[in-house]
Amino acid sequence: MLVISGAHGRGRASLPREARLAITAPMLALTPPELVELLVTLPADRTPFIWGPPGIGKSALVREAADLLAVPCVTLLGTQIAPEDLIGVPRITAREGGGFATEFCPPKAILRADPFLLFIDELNSAVPDVQKAFYSLILDRRLGDYELPPGSRVVGAGNRVEDRALVRPMATALANRMVHVALSADVEAWLAWGAANNLHALVLAFIRARPDRLFELPPSDATPAYPTPRAWHLLSDALVTVSEGLWAALAAGSVGDRAGAEWTAFAKRAREAPSLEAIAAGTAAVPRDPELIYFLAASCLAKLGTQSRADGELAAKVVTALGAASKEVAVWAVDSALSRKQRSPAIAAFEEHIRGSGAQVLIDVLRLGRFAREGAVK
Question: Which SS3 state, helix, strand or coil, does residue 5 take?
Fold first, then answer.
């Protein structure tokens, strides 16, 4: 369902209904795990529309849902297609018994024999004629004479007016064909995803210490860079290849001046942290600085991305030591490690060490999972 958002909705009531759909927001906001669950469990003949700001992870979550459904994901951008691109170009064919007829050739991207997930991104940024071309596809899974294979799914997504993105009014006839939900940024879910996908330890540790910096609304002064989950992911990938001397410029250009400067200062302080090997051997103490503890925990998670059992044992020893200084950080590290879908020799060794000699709270996490984590941080 849709509602007029903001404190000044009363003044908008006089607008035409079609125009109002461009400045409204969905009632229901979901976290990333909840959205994926909805996409997977919603009946295939129902079309969800995901509202959310740029860079929050809409596309990645749709692809994750497609992977869970074991179907390919085909993406169409509403801003980059014309009506004929969707309906197909006409051709004249001979009819049996004589005469000719015109038929439309659907685009090759969606002309498939097996079920797939069709993701229509930036749907509410498309011109009205393109939006109309999606009517029968969204409601009936049909384009002219072509029908999507049984079991195929259609998902739409777009930005909101308050995101200062390109947004056009959505016709009521189109909006009423879909289930509308909003996607909200969720720090815990993003950190778990980042740990499972081996994001850079300095990025994970900074967001763990400064969760308010994961996402900010687009700035009103047209500044091009600002922090979003996508921007932090881009920064993480670039840190692997860009020299340290350029990190300050890289961070500012990825997540904005303010968040970039704070991350750069954090990265400089991280140099003061003792090595994992020194902490595991007992020759260095766990630092008292909470941000350094976060960095050490994230460094342990990075070790679990290898195929080395020695790396897993090292990470387990350090996380156990960190638990004496910060139970919350240690529980986060264990929970993130064991929530990874792909098991590796490093993770197996990590779990074995924790079970054999870890602190009680870490053992509880292994046994009770999320419930123990939530109890540990109270």
Answer: coil
Name the residue with higher pLDDT: 164 or 355. 355
Distance CA 152, CA 114 (A): 8
Around Cβ 316, how many Cβ atoms within 10 Å?
30
Closest C-alpha to 124, from 155, 87, 156: 156
Q: Are strands 2-4 and 24-26 parallel, antiparallel or unpaired?
A: antiparallel
Work out the angle at residue 170's Cα, subtended by the Cα atoms of residues 85 and 105, and round it to the nearest 5 degrees.
Answer: 15
Amino acid at 138: I
For residue 15, is pLDDT > 60?
no
Q: Is the pLDDT of residue 65 over 90?
A: yes
- The residue behind tokens 């007016």 is 161
Q: What are the chain's domains?
A: 2-183 (3.40.50.300), 187-376 (no CATH)
Does the pLDDT of residue 249 top 90, yes or no?
yes
Which residues sit opposite 50 in a β-bridge? 157, 181
Q: Within 10 A of 246 (CB to CB), how many other CB atoms are there?
A: 12
Coil vs helix vs strand at 305 = coil
Query: Distance between CA atoms of 202 and 209, rounded to whole angstroms?
Result: 11
- Provide CB contacts within 8 A for 360, sequence distance 6+: none
pLDDT of residue 108: 77
Residue 62 and residue 116: Cα distance in Å, rounded? 12
Q: Hey, what are 47's tokens?
A: 């079309």
What confidence tens digit (pLDDT) does each residue in 122-151 have? 888 888 888 888 888 888 888 877 889 999
Chain mean pLDDT for the chain: 83
How far apart are alpha carbons 378 and 373 in whole angstroms?
9
Largest CA distance in the chain: 91
Amino acid at 151: G
For 118-132, the DSSP string reads: EEEETGGGS-HHHHH
> Model-level pTM greater than 0.70?
yes
Average confidence (pLDDT) over 332-344: 82
pLDDT tens for each residue of 209-242: 999 999 988 887 778 899 999 999 999 999 999 9
Beta strands (DSSP E) in the chain are 2-4, 24-26, 29-30, 47-51, 73-77, 89-94, 100-105, 117-121, 142-143, 146-147, 153-158, 178-183
Instruction: Estimate the share of the chain in helix, then strand, then coil, as percent rounded to the nearest 5.
Output: 55, 15, 35
